[in-house]
Amino acid sequence: MKTQKNSIRTGVEELILLLATLVQLTPLIYLAMGAFKNRSDIVKHPFSLTKEMFTLANFPKAVTNMKFLRSLSNTALITLISLVLVIFIGSLTGFAVARAKGKLFTIFYSICVALMVIPFISCLIPVITQATKLNIYNTVWGCIAYEAAWNIPMAVFLYTGFIRGLPQELQDAAYIDGCSTFKVYSSVFLPLLAPVTATCAIRCGVGMWNDYILARCMLNSVRIPTLMVSIYSFFGDRVNEYGLAFAGIILASLPMVIIYISLQKYFIKGIVAGAVKG
Q1: Could you give the CA distance from residue 213 to residue 217 in angstroms, rounded to a whole number?
Q2: Among 35, 66, 76, 98, fewest CB within 10 Å belongs to which?
Q3: Are 209 and 75 spatial neighbours (Cβ–Cβ below 8 Å)?
Q4: 204 near 154, Cβ under 8 Å?
């Protein structure tokens, strides 16, 4: 009797998960189909794709209209440099917070966690004002600085939780061998941080890659376009080029999808370790 109840419960749970999965996949299916149809077919037949409708014309048009290579290089530059800064500063800060003793570090960690829940859009006006005063407005380096600064609290949170779960004996043994504090970080702990580094790279990197608000407000969208800003150009006041936009979204998403598939096992391991040990 108990086994039968468990089987029914398991079946219901699996059905609920299946329905939730279908709901989440519906927009992706719509997008994938729309990328291979013209605008009129997308509106008339949103969830069907026949041989007569199928076309590859959206992709070359999207590449041309988006200035794809230029947008890709700008987005990659901003994401890569911001990510290097986030990983370096976040891992170093996380090591200090996790291993050093003192109320100051505890307060600092609490502030980092609190900053994670503040929506970026609420800080947009102060950010633009500050960037203008610092003469970094409408520059790639200004955008990099704010992208990195906004993602550092998340990196500190992930690294602190992971490092707290590593044995204290590793640090003690390194000090006995004559290592300095920075040597302990770089030679002992840094090689062990691959899982959480992959997690941080994916978690923060995807946000930077897909950022629209900061790039739109901080950069000249014509002179320094990014992928997300270029995709938005397909949506106008009178006409929306859905097919071109969907094709552009697919092209812009491919690098992140490839990176996620490559680092997937590290990503899951780092999330679990940070959540349990943090």
Answers
A1: 6
A2: 76
A3: yes
A4: yes
Give 40's contacts (C-beta < 8 A, 6+ positions apart). Answer: none
Q: What is the DSSP string of 208-270?
A: HHT--HHHHHHS-TTTS--HHHHHHTTB-SS-B-HHHHHHHHHHHHHHHHHHHHHHHHHHHHH
Alpha-carbon gap, residue 218 to 216, rounded angstroms: 6
Closest CA to 259 of 208, 211, 221: 208
Residues 208/79, Cβ–Cβ less than 8 Å: yes
Tokens of 181: 């504090």
Q: Is the dihedral of CA 128, 134, 138, 139 positive or negative?
A: negative
Question: Residue 191: which of 272, 91, 96 has the closest Cα?
Answer: 91
Pair 170, 189: CB distance under 8 Å: yes
Tokens representing 54 are 């199928």
Torsion of CA 175, 178, 179, 180, to 10 degrees: 90
Mean pLDDT by 10 residues, the chain (278 residues): 71 89 89 89 84 88 91 94 95 89 86 87 90 91 93 92 86 83 84 86 90 89 85 83 92 87 68 49
Tell me the C-alpha distance between 251 and 249, whole Å: 5
Angle between helices 68-99 and 194-209 in degrees, nearest 10: 140
Please, are residues 93 and 162 in contact by the beta-carbon 8 Å criterion? Answer: no
